Amino acid sequence: MLKSLIALARVSMLVVNVGVGDGRETCLLAELVKPNTVRGIDENVLKLRHLSTFAIGRHMRLRRGVLGVVNANATATRPRTHRLDTLLTGEGRWWFHLEQPLGVLLINRINGSAINVLSGGMQAIRRDRPIIALRDDDADVTILLENEKYKRYEILENSTLSTKLYIPAEETQMKALLSG
Q1: Which of 39, 55, 75, 153 could join 165 via S-S bond, C-beta 3.0 to 4.6 A?
Q2: What is the pLDDT of residues 91-139, one digit of tens each?
Q3: Strands 37-42, 131-134: pairing kind
Q4: What are the b/e assignments for 36-62, b being 16+ CB within 10 Å?
Protein backbone atom coordinates (compact mmCIF):
# COMPACT_ATOMS: atom_id res chain seq x y z
CA MET A 1 0.00 0.00 0.00
CA LEU A 2 2.84 2.40 0.85
CA LYS A 3 4.34 1.97 -2.64
CA SER A 4 0.97 2.79 -4.22
CA LEU A 5 0.64 5.94 -2.13
CA ILE A 6 4.09 7.11 -3.12
CA ALA A 7 3.57 6.34 -6.80
CA LEU A 8 0.38 8.36 -6.91
CA ALA A 9 1.56 11.25 -4.75
CA ARG A 10 4.03 13.10 -7.00
CA VAL A 11 7.09 12.49 -9.10
CA SER A 12 9.07 15.22 -7.31
CA MET A 13 8.13 15.64 -3.67
CA LEU A 14 9.24 16.06 -0.12
CA VAL A 15 8.10 13.46 2.43
CA VAL A 16 7.90 14.46 6.11
CA ASN A 17 7.71 11.78 8.81
CA VAL A 18 6.72 13.20 12.19
CA GLY A 19 7.64 10.96 15.12
CA VAL A 20 9.96 8.53 13.35
CA GLY A 21 9.05 5.52 15.50
CA ASP A 22 11.72 2.85 15.24
CA GLY A 23 12.83 4.28 11.89
CA ARG A 24 11.78 1.43 9.61
CA GLU A 25 9.16 3.51 7.82
CA THR A 26 11.53 6.43 7.42
CA CYS A 27 14.12 4.16 5.79
CA LEU A 28 11.49 2.50 3.59
CA LEU A 29 10.14 5.87 2.51
CA ALA A 30 13.66 7.03 1.65
CA GLU A 31 14.08 4.01 -0.62
CA LEU A 32 10.66 4.40 -2.24
CA VAL A 33 10.91 8.10 -3.07
CA LYS A 34 14.46 8.21 -4.47
CA PRO A 35 15.83 10.70 -5.47
CA ASN A 36 13.44 12.80 -3.38
CA THR A 37 14.08 13.64 0.24
CA VAL A 38 12.51 12.23 3.40
CA ARG A 39 12.62 14.52 6.41
CA GLY A 40 12.22 12.85 9.79
CA ILE A 41 11.57 14.80 12.97
CA ASP A 42 11.42 13.36 16.48
CA GLU A 43 12.09 14.55 19.99
CA ASN A 44 14.12 11.51 21.05
CA VAL A 45 17.81 12.20 20.45
CA LEU A 46 18.88 8.57 21.06
CA LYS A 47 16.39 7.31 18.50
CA LEU A 48 17.62 9.87 15.98
CA ARG A 49 21.26 9.02 16.66
CA HIS A 50 20.51 5.33 15.99
CA LEU A 51 18.51 6.12 12.85
CA SER A 52 21.24 8.42 11.53
CA THR A 53 23.45 5.38 10.90
CA PHE A 54 20.86 4.24 8.32
CA ALA A 55 20.58 7.71 6.80
CA ILE A 56 24.07 7.52 5.30
CA GLY A 57 23.76 7.25 1.55
CA ARG A 58 20.00 7.78 1.58
CA HIS A 59 18.01 10.90 0.78
CA MET A 60 17.01 11.17 4.41
CA ARG A 61 17.53 14.08 6.78
CA LEU A 62 16.74 13.97 10.50
CA ARG A 63 16.00 16.73 12.96
CA ARG A 64 15.47 16.74 16.70
CA GLY A 65 12.33 18.54 17.74
CA VAL A 66 8.59 18.51 17.47
CA LEU A 67 6.14 20.12 15.08
CA GLY A 68 3.47 22.38 16.48
CA VAL A 69 1.42 25.54 16.09
CA VAL A 70 4.19 27.98 17.06
CA ASN A 71 7.98 28.05 16.91
CA ALA A 72 9.52 27.77 20.38
CA ASN A 73 13.08 27.35 21.61
CA ALA A 74 14.15 24.25 23.46
CA THR A 75 14.08 24.18 27.24
CA ALA A 76 15.70 21.82 29.72
CA THR A 77 12.67 19.53 29.50
CA ARG A 78 11.36 20.09 25.96
CA PRO A 79 12.99 20.04 22.52
CA ARG A 80 12.58 22.89 20.08
CA THR A 81 9.16 23.26 18.47
CA HIS A 82 8.93 24.08 14.78
CA ARG A 83 6.00 25.06 12.61
CA LEU A 84 5.95 22.98 9.43
CA ASP A 85 5.13 26.12 7.46
CA THR A 86 8.25 27.83 8.85
CA LEU A 87 10.49 24.88 7.97
CA LEU A 88 9.15 24.88 4.40
CA THR A 89 9.70 28.59 3.75
CA GLY A 90 12.77 30.81 3.49
CA GLU A 91 12.56 31.32 7.25
CA GLY A 92 13.21 27.65 7.96
CA ARG A 93 15.95 25.11 7.48
CA TRP A 94 14.10 23.06 4.85
CA TRP A 95 13.42 26.00 2.54
CA PHE A 96 15.88 24.82 -0.11
CA HIS A 97 13.46 21.98 -0.89
CA LEU A 98 10.76 24.38 -2.07
CA GLU A 99 11.18 23.02 -5.60
CA GLN A 100 9.87 19.76 -4.12
CA PRO A 101 6.28 20.20 -2.95
CA LEU A 102 5.18 18.39 0.19
CA GLY A 103 3.86 15.10 -1.23
CA VAL A 104 3.32 12.95 1.86
CA LEU A 105 2.96 13.93 5.51
CA LEU A 106 3.14 10.90 7.83
CA ILE A 107 2.31 11.62 11.47
CA ASN A 108 3.04 8.69 13.77
CA ARG A 109 2.03 8.43 17.39
CA ILE A 110 3.64 11.50 18.87
CA ASN A 111 3.76 13.29 22.19
CA GLY A 112 1.45 16.14 21.44
CA SER A 113 -1.43 16.57 19.15
CA ALA A 114 -1.75 15.85 15.42
CA ILE A 115 -4.07 18.85 15.20
CA ASN A 116 -1.16 21.08 16.30
CA VAL A 117 1.16 19.62 13.64
CA LEU A 118 -1.49 20.20 10.97
CA SER A 119 -2.39 23.69 12.20
CA GLY A 120 1.27 24.69 12.01
CA GLY A 121 1.43 23.49 8.41
CA MET A 122 -1.80 24.73 6.82
CA GLN A 123 -0.06 26.97 4.27
CA ALA A 124 1.90 23.99 2.91
CA ILE A 125 -1.15 21.73 3.07
CA ARG A 126 -3.27 24.21 1.11
CA ARG A 127 -0.49 24.93 -1.38
CA ASP A 128 0.78 21.38 -2.02
CA ARG A 129 -2.26 19.18 -1.21
CA PRO A 130 -0.17 16.30 0.18
CA ILE A 131 -1.42 12.86 1.11
CA ILE A 132 -1.67 12.84 4.91
CA ALA A 133 -1.36 9.63 6.92
CA LEU A 134 -1.97 9.58 10.67
CA ARG A 135 -1.63 6.83 13.25
CA ASP A 136 -3.69 8.77 15.76
CA ASP A 137 -6.37 11.24 14.91
CA ASP A 138 -9.48 12.65 16.45
CA ALA A 139 -12.64 14.50 15.51
CA ASP A 140 -10.77 17.84 15.33
CA VAL A 141 -8.36 16.45 12.71
CA THR A 142 -11.22 15.02 10.66
CA ILE A 143 -13.16 18.30 10.75
CA LEU A 144 -10.08 20.36 9.86
CA LEU A 145 -9.15 18.20 6.88
CA GLU A 146 -12.71 17.71 5.64
CA ASN A 147 -13.05 21.51 5.62
CA GLU A 148 -9.93 21.53 3.40
CA LYS A 149 -11.65 19.09 1.01
CA TYR A 150 -9.84 15.91 2.08
CA LYS A 151 -11.51 12.51 2.18
CA ARG A 152 -10.73 10.12 5.06
CA TYR A 153 -9.96 6.42 4.65
CA GLU A 154 -8.98 3.96 7.36
CA ILE A 155 -6.54 1.13 6.68
CA LEU A 156 -6.33 -1.62 9.30
CA GLU A 157 -2.74 -2.76 9.54
CA ASN A 158 -3.37 -5.34 12.25
CA SER A 159 -5.81 -5.92 15.11
CA THR A 160 -4.50 -2.98 17.13
CA LEU A 161 -3.12 -0.52 14.58
CA SER A 162 -4.78 1.45 11.84
CA THR A 163 -3.69 4.33 9.68
CA LYS A 164 -6.05 7.11 8.71
CA LEU A 165 -5.38 8.39 5.20
CA TYR A 166 -6.55 11.80 4.13
CA ILE A 167 -6.58 12.17 0.37
CA PRO A 168 -7.27 15.47 -1.42
CA ALA A 169 -10.76 15.33 -2.97
CA GLU A 170 -9.30 16.08 -6.40
CA GLU A 171 -7.04 12.99 -6.32
CA THR A 172 -9.15 10.56 -8.37
CA GLN A 173 -6.51 7.83 -8.91
CA MET A 174 -5.91 7.44 -5.19
CA LYS A 175 -9.63 7.35 -4.39
CA ALA A 176 -10.09 4.57 -6.97
CA LEU A 177 -7.22 2.57 -5.43
CA LEU A 178 -8.64 2.88 -1.91
CA SER A 179 -12.25 2.21 -2.89
CA GLY A 180 -11.56 -0.78 -5.13
Answers
A1: 153
A2: 666 655 556 788 889 888 765 588 999 999 999 999 989 989 888 767 8
A3: unpaired
A4: bbbbbbbbeeebbeebeeebeeebbbb
